[in-house]
Amino acid sequence: MKKTLFKGDRMKKKSAYETVSSASRHKQSKPTKARRVLLKKHHAKPYRKRHFALLVVLIAALAVSIMLLVQYRDQVLSGFAASRAFLSSLFTEQVVNDRTVTSSLGFTLSYDARTLYASGVDQDTGQLYAGSELERKRPYSLVRLTPAFATTETQVAPTSSLTATVVSSVAEGGVLPVAMQQAGIDAEALRSIAYKETQLAGRTFMYHQWETLPNDAFPSGVKAYFDTYMTDLGDGTSLVVTVALGLDRSSEALYDTVLDTMLVQNPGDSAVLGATTNLRQYATVLPKLDAFAAFGSVPNAAAAAPISEQIAAQYSPAVVKIYSAYCADILVDGRLFFEEVCAAGTGSGFFVSQDGYVATNGHVVSSDPKGLALQYAVAALASNGDSRYLEALMVLAGLTDAKLAVAQSEEELVAIIVDAVYDMSDARFSRANNVESILVNVTDQSPDVDAWLQSIQERRNYTDDDNVLAAELVDEDYRLLDGYDGFRASDVAILKVDGSQFPVVRLGSISDVTQGANLSILGYPGEASGNGIVETTATMATLTSGKVSSIKSDSGGEHKLIETDTTIGKGNSGGPVFADNGAVVGIATYTADGSGEGGGVYNYVRDIQDLLDLAKENDITFDTDSRTQAEWDEGLSYFYNSRYSRALENFEIVEDLYPDHNRVAEFIATAKTRIANGEDVKDFPVALVAGIAVVLLLASGAVIFVMVRHHHKHKVYAVGVAQGTVVPQSVPQQVHVTPAQPEVQPSRPVVPPVTNAPPMQPEQGPESQDAVTRPPFNT
After folding, report:
1. pLDDT tens-digit readout, 507-539
2. 15 lies in a domain?
3. For residues 3 and 773, is the Cβ–Cβ distance under 8 A?
4. Do 720 and 744 form a contact (C-beta atoms < 8 A)?
5. Among the three residues 267, 293, 319, which one is the final residue of a domain in this structure?
């Protein structure tokens, strides 16, 4: 017989398994629901010791990891600071630009070495001195100042000069003509256009203005202008200052600054200078002074930013000093035009290919006979009023009065003459008795300059110095006296030396910089030595830095120029100009000085694209895959991070690949010293330790989360025990926690499964008493 469960019975059966009270069921019907929580015996404690112990261990391990990272960072930063100081000592130097020449014969001249170059002759020995050597007081009977560098964009004529001479007051032929002759000026080719007395240095001087005499065979619009100042020094001598202003008077303000600061003293017991003393010597020295003077400018080394110092360290080995000299007779149409044309100077350049291609400026290495003929012809007119050479070139170029009449200014007139000469066939110009030498200094020691110049003068090649490599001029895009009416060339040149594995720079684009961007220039600003040409001391690349003032087109409109506030001297000409990304964006080329007219000094950088275009014209591909440079770069990276042992390995490879490397020996010595002092940072697994620290941090966070959760359950446990709904120290049990109020309702106990246990009889309770047993069916 089946036992039937009535509806009331089923409801009672359901209530037997109900886990919450009717009040709880009423509350569950509302939006706020009870949360089920599993409680265990250990929740009777507010915290567990194992959690605290694990957290302490994790925090200690994290602290150790962070301490190791901080210690490594401090060691690296300390080494980086030391490396930076080391680099600063190598590449940053302060240059004093205000110079003074004091002659014991009774006068002192002050000048700015950035704009003027000085040379002088000792009366007693006949020795020629130049640059900083003139700061020592000697009996200078002739001191000459010429522009350190000039372009047609400046307000300084490139052939202008100031010459101070001391002559006898009873000189045969007159004091003024003798002094002008010693200054290289033919007084008979000039006429006086004004004179008066004027006050200079607290003394009365007789002041004359001169210009070249009219010449029917020469355009009347082209004249050369001169000023002279003369005063009596006493003791039978006179001081004459002769200012050659070139083809206009635009240079006057520059030399007025020198005149305004000139001092004149009594010469004392100095010997009287004879009227004809050293005239032959002056006639020989002055042309060379004019030719050499442009190579003596010294730039101001600005304080370099750290990125500039890194660029200097990385690429200065690829920057070289260039020595260029020639002696030749210049022929036009096979006839002698100029005899014994000799000049020498220095500039900068840089390796652009590991197989020996060197970039520089055209004006650093050019000895084009056409340009030399034109330059010396113009110089003869501007310096001493001799117009014969320029007249001859005009005739040969086929210039007529009609062609010259279209000129609206002196600049246009000169430009017409220059263009006409350059339009002449190159075959009409040649050199005889010619010796040309271009040397690339690849070490930190200068060549024997005296021996080099002696070999050039004796018309023989110079091959006796291991510090330099002989270079060949591959091609140039340059012409002398360019820019009178717009530039026709870009003033870049490519040289080639024999060898391989040279350090190289990385070429970029002018688009890498914008207005206000930083620039770093490396080069060798020349300081002339006792021979008046170049320095003979150890060479060191100089770092100058500044910013991009603007990017413009040159006056010809075909090429880009970067205008910068970084000083560029003639010795810097041809040097690389770096952007902050380490790429070369241009070549240091021009300085335009408008300070005498109330303006400033402007410096211009030729676009590196001009060099790439010249290489393309000659089918040259620059091979920049230099293992020397790669090892050097990697070694520097280790060096900056104080990993001197690793850096030393790279530097020793560089030394083996390229023994002439001019920086590696210093870095090797410094690395060894710091290793011996215990400053070497060993290989440290930064990524691994940092990863472990992150894992420890996450693990600590997880333990804290578990502790907070345990403590929350403990509070539920405590409330449940207080309410009698949780059995203390019982097996795991589930309860419902109502968030609306601190009330804990019991749920079904969670009884862990027991295997191989006898079946348990149900516990008799109220529910089992109400149950109705259905008898089995009869079969």
Report:
1. 999 999 998 899 999 998 754 333 344 444 557
2. no
3. yes
4. yes
5. 293
Task: Determine the Cα–Cα distance for residues 26 and 758; give it in Å rounded to an integer.
Answer: 39
Pair 640, 560 in one domain = no
Nearest to 345, CA basis, from 329, 361, 369: 361
Ranges of H-type helices in 520-642: 608-617, 627-640
Q: How many CA atoms lie within 13 A of 70 on its CB side?
A: 6
**Cα–Cα distance measured from residue 105 to residue 85, given in angstroms and rounded to the nearest whole number:** 46
Reply yes or no on whether the pLDDT at 218 is more than 90.
no
How far, in Å, CA of 279 to CA of 125, rounded? 14
Domain of 350, CATH number, reads: 2.40.10.120
Helix H or strand E encompassing 80: helix 49-91
- For residue range 401-423, list pLDDT tens digits in order: 888 888 777 778 888 888 899 99
Q: Which residues contact 650 (CB under 8 A, 6 or more apart)?
A: 631, 632, 634, 635, 638
Tell whether 718 is covered by a domain.
Answer: no
Q: CB 28: neighbour CB atoms within 10 A?
A: 14
- Domain CATH for 206: 3.40.1000.10
Give residue-wise pLDDT tens across range 705-745. Answer: 988 888 888 888 888 888 777 777 776 877 777 765 556 66
At residue 364 the predicted structure's pLDDT band, cuts being 50, 70 and 90, is: very high
Looking at the fold, whether 264 and 317 belong to one and the same domain comes out as: no
Q: How much is the pTM?
A: 0.61
Alpha-carbon dihedral sign for residues 618, 623, 624, 629: negative
Chain position carrying tokens 């490139």:
158
What H or E segment, with its residue span, contains residue 241? strand 237-246
Phi and psi, residue 734, nearest 5°: -105, 140
Distance (Å, rounded) from C-alpha 573 to C-alpha 585? Answer: 15
Residue 150 CA to residue 132 CA, distance in Å, equals 21
Residues of the domain holding 320: 306-617
Locate 76 and state its tokens: 């690296």
- At 688, the amino acid letter reads L
Show the DSSP H helices in 405-476 as ranges.
410-422, 449-457
Which residues are within 8 A (CB) of 97 and not within 5 positions of it... i.e. 6 or more apart?
112, 113, 114, 298, 300
Q: Are 774 and 4 in contact (CB under 8 A)?
A: yes
Q: Nearest to residue 287, comparing CAs of 323, 231, 339?
A: 339
The count of structural domains within the chain is 3
Strands 583-593 and 506-507: what pairing? parallel
567 and 632 in a common domain:
no
Asked if residue 560 and residue 428 are part of one domain, the reply reads yes
Helix axes 49-91, 686-723, angle to 10 degrees: 150
8 A C-beta contact, residue 738 and residue 719 = no
Spatial distance between the Cα atoms of 723 and 744, rounded to a whole number of angstroms: 7
Residues 287 and 320 in one domain: no
The CA radius of gyration of the chain, in Å to the nearest whole number, is 45
1 Cβ neighbours under 8 A, 6+ residues apart: 774, 775, 776, 777, 778
CA distances from 726 to 160, 709, 715, 741, 745 (A): 109, 18, 12, 17, 8
SS3 state at 268: coil
Q: Residue 39: name the closest of 743, 704, 703, 736 by CA.
A: 736
